[in-house]
Amino acid sequence: MKKLITLILVIFILPFGFSQNYVWQLKKSGSSLGGPIDVEKYNHNNVYYGSLNKIFKSTDRGETFAQIGVNIPSATEIKCVIIDDDNPNVILVGIEASTDKIVKTTDAGATWTITADGLSFSYFGIPITQDPTHPDTFYTMNGNNFMRSTDFGSTWTTISASFGTNSAPCDIEVFPDTSIILVGDNGTGIFKSTNYGLTWTQTYSTSGEIPTIAVDYTHPGIAYATKWGGGGGLLKSTDYGSTWSLMTGFTGQNMWGVHINPLDGNEVFAGCYSCGTTWKTKNGGATWQTVSIPSTNYQYFIVDSMNVFAAQGNGFYKLDSPFFIPVELTAFSAELQDKSILLNWTTATELNNSGFEIEASTNNIDFIKIGFVPGYGTTTESKSYSFTISETYSYKTYYRLKQIDFDGSYQYSSSVEVESVLPEKYSLEQNYPNPFNPNTTIKFEMPKDGFVSLKIYDILGNEIATLVNEEKPTGRYEVNFNASALVSGVYIYKLESAEYISTKKMLLLK
């Protein structure tokens, strides 16, 4: 059963206050170091956790785990785990051993290959970082030598030596869609490169360690960094890491892990190394909640607002709350009916359910909103929903539901796939209703990709409105026309492409 999760937020007046509404639960005992958690991009049920010389996988969003593959040869600690989003059987891992190494598997851990050996990672650091814009590109450091791989970690090249610090690196982060890279080290500060790591400038100095840096994927230029030692604290930059400011309330706290919600940059989790506290903000650091967490902190990993994980010294933790109330989605299907697609879904229970946005995609990655269906709010009865789609976006289309709570919290369903029967010829249908006042719908079909225009004219041939004027893929389309600003009378609508022209009349009666 797929569960959509909603959240009731608890508002705190003080900028820092302890909340009993969230509880960290140990889901898998282990020995954490660095950043040993990763989640599959296209299936958030699949969560990975590395401990000592083993990789564990959960298929239920971190509730239970089982080891995959064999033990990683010679590994004494796993420093980071990175899953190939396009092929989860491919995993890249940074390990501590007699000499630090990077290892790779292409068969889900059945065999392991060393791709870089004789390395020197910081003891606590996260040694490998993936470029979010170029997923086959990775960066690592051997001492203060900065290295890059462009083949998902199979081979490595040193691109800059003695990059500016003699201290061991702790974390590397890359701003998406830029050439900007940040490095935090053990004992010197933060360094910035604007040319993919070829040259470096120090942008923050400290006598302590910078254990973790996090980059905001939704607000360009924003990043957070933690300080261990050197007075401690939590740093924030709003200019791509060129300048940094200490955030109020963290002075003296030896901070460690920090992560930003990839879907909502206003939500940030940060933790101290050994004081047993997690800080959580939903408004970019204006106010914070705190919740206790056992053991020492290394990594936070936010999938979305409802799924937050932590790698602690004694294992893998998941954030739970009595306010995570499920909207239980018991069925979700799509079927082709004549020239339309019918989506149907049912829920077992609902609480605080504002409704469902319907989203469509032609590649199962990039989704757009195409409609909204209100929810029932709060009910313990099973409810049924449906949504009809007349416009066919491509031969193969994917649809998913975005369930939204009244406070704006949301969760996605899995997607369903529909293969449509493509039109065999151009056609322009009679608008409906006709006569109309003031709205009517115009449908047309295209048997091939191409540029198409749909325009409205008055009876004298003057252009009144342009409804479509762009490249369109093969498919069936419907367009709404609102004539509230026009006077009653006969109007003409015209569909035109390189190979087809058709006109029809419609009557506006007010």
Word description of this protein:
The radius of gyration is 27 Å and the shape is elongated. The chain is an all-beta fold. Residues 1-20 have low confidence and may be disordered. The two termini are 51 Å apart. A hairpin with a 7-residue loop joins β6 (54-58) and β7 (66-68). 0% of the residues lie in helices and 54% in strands. Among the domains are: 35-123, Thrombin, subunit H (Beta Barrel), CATH 2.40.10; 326-419, Immunoglobulins (Immunoglobulin-like, Sandwich); 427-508, Macroglobulin (MG2) domain (Immunoglobulin-like). It has no helices and 45 strands. The protein has a five-stranded mixed β-sheet with strand order 2-27-26-25-24, with no helix packed on it. Strands 33, 34, 36, 37 and 38 form a five-stranded antiparallel β-sheet that branches.
Secondary-structure arrangement, i.e. CATH architecture of the domain at 326-419: Sandwich
CATH superfamily heading of the domain at 326-419: Immunoglobulins
Number of helices: 0
Largest sheet: 5 strands, mixed
- Helix proportion: under 10%
Q: How many DSSP-defined strands?
A: 45
SS class:
mainly beta
In terms of topology, how is this protein built?
Layout: E1 2-7, E2 16-18, E3 23-29, E4 37-39, E5 47-51, E6 54-58, E7 66-68, E8 77-83, E9 91-96, E10 100-105, E11 113-119, E12 128-130, E13 138-142, E14 145-149, E15 157-160, E16 169-174, E17 181-185, E18 189-193, E19 201-205, E20 213-215, E21 223-227, E22 233-237, E23 245-246, E24 255-260, E25 268-272, E26 277-281, E27 288-292, E28 297-304, E29 307-312, E30 315-320, E31 324-337, E32 340-347, E33 350-361, E34 368-379, E35 383-389, E36 396-405, E37 410-412, E38 416-419, E39 427-428, E40 439-446, E41 450-458, E42 463-472, E43 475-482, E44 489-497, E45 501-508
